[in-house]
Amino acid sequence: MTDTTHETADVLVVGSGIAGCAAALAAAREGSDVLLLTKAERPDDASTDWAQGGISTTRGDPESLKEDVLEASDGTADPAAVDVLVENADDAVEDVLVDTLEIPFDETDDGEFDYTREAAHSEHRILHVDAATGSHILRPFLAHVDDHDRIEVRQDTAALELIADEGRVHGVVTDESATGHPIYAGTTILATGGIGALYGRSTNPEGATGDGIAMAALAGATVDDLEYVQFHPTAYAGSEAQRGSKRSGEAAERDTFLLSEALRGEGAVLLNGNGERFMEDYHPDAELAPRDVVARAVAAEREATGEVVLDVSPLEFESEYPGIAEKCRDRGIEGSEIPVAPCEHFLCGGIDVDDRGRTSLERLYAVGECARTGVHGANRLASTSLLEGLVWGLRAGEDAAATDATPERVEAPELRDSDPDLPERFAAEKFTRLRRTMDEYLGLERDPDEVARASAVLRRLKGEVDAYVRTRTARDLYELRNASVVALLIARAASENEESTGCHYVVDEAEEETTDPEPATADRP
Ligand code: SIN
């Protein structure tokens, strides 16, 4: 039996990154009572806290930012969605980040904002706080929503299922009771972030298990563009060890960390194992080429020459980027050459939404990385993710409040807690298998035969996971269920798209045979 105790909220927000906070704030400003649920226990359980480079503005020139977004996406971004982004960018940043939260963005000696530039941006237009912008935004934002009279923030609480009936969503079932705790809401906004936990190396926190995407897809929401998984070109190469996590029970060693694109934007260069710069051979914009191009070039040069380093000697590295410099020191990296490798970073696709974050299901919204607004197309421009989360979070929160929908108490999904005999390391071992499959077959390059193999492995895995999820209300099992649902959706999207675009790079086997063993030529003009 489902727990009969239940709660209601006008607007229910699931997730506590910038998009969730913005949605909660906007709905509360409109007079709604908001419940913000998050499985996070600390700010750095949300990807926003990990964001380094900054948040793009238009600096009064929306057309120029629009052109860069479209160009980085290889022409695949939706121009109407990009218009929404660029037309609302500066107001949203000024209202929430500058006036309300008073984020201490870096300034020049003249007291003006010190705008930086990243790859594929034609202008210096990115606001930042050294290269730790996400945590400088998120922590005050969380404190602000937590203090708000109309917002209750509940941490360490996972939504396990949506309560849906005939195409309309009425809230979620949480893990606050062994048989599931229903929370009914007039409107529900998913802001659950990305999918980094599906890969061995990611710049996301380990809780990025695709929860919102899986729950929405299982409830029948439309999802799109899931093959477009963005890899950041310059994460610390580390020891290439698999991610450690509480899920796997291994020591939580996070060997990798991001080396922000802002470093290249300000002059850092990439060198291969022979000490040569190589990016000009791949793209006229060299180190500032679109992210997918740089990521594949770095992977190819690592394979061909043994390693790639980011040479930060042209920068005032220690004083301008103290957070990243400290991470380097902690790992014993000496000198100005930091070994780098591509690493999963951001999902460009997700739950399909319109210009206000409305999904294909009534009363369900999605914002931030779990949503597919159309802004990123096949490849996201740097420093647009915080901006997209902020803009769409505000718009969705406002729209959700305006619906003035009353929570309806339909029957909630029944969760069970009946089988105590779950093998102890079940979730950890299945997660390891899932990540290996994603790393091997659904990484930077996709070979159609390998994608088919991945689909078969993932289907089997999901079958095994489903059998246990039906018997036990455990957060790690639901996270595994969510990860396996999203992994399968990625595999399906990759198999259905035969065209190489942006982050989805299809290896043509015939071409591979003729060009091997010179993989470094894969991207060369
Ligand atoms: C970075 O700092 O390189 C990441 C910025 C982003 O992903 O938008």
TrEMBL record:
Stretches assigned to coiled coil: none
Name of the top EC class for this enzyme: oxidoreductase
Location of the FAD-dependent oxidoreductase 2 FAD-binding domain: 10-386
Molecular function via GO: L-aspartate oxidase activity
Keywords linked to the UniProt accession: FAD, Flavoprotein, Oxidoreductase, Pyridine nucleotide biosynthesis
Pathways involved: Cofactor biosynthesis; NAD(+) biosynthesis; iminoaspartate from L-aspartate (oxidase route): step 1/1
InterPro entries per the UniProt record, alphabetical: FAD-dep_OxRdtase_2_FAD-bd, FAD/NAD-bd_sf, Fum_R/Succ_DH_flav-like_C_sf, Fum_Rdtase/Succ_DH_flav-like_C, NadB, Succ_DH/fumarate_Rdtase_cat_sf
Cofactor (UniProt): FAD
Name this protein carries in UniProt: L-aspartate oxidase
Organism in which the protein naturally occurs: Natronobacterium lacisalsi AJ5
Phylogenetic classification of the source organism: Archaea, Methanobacteriati, Methanobacteriota, Stenosarchaea group, Halobacteria
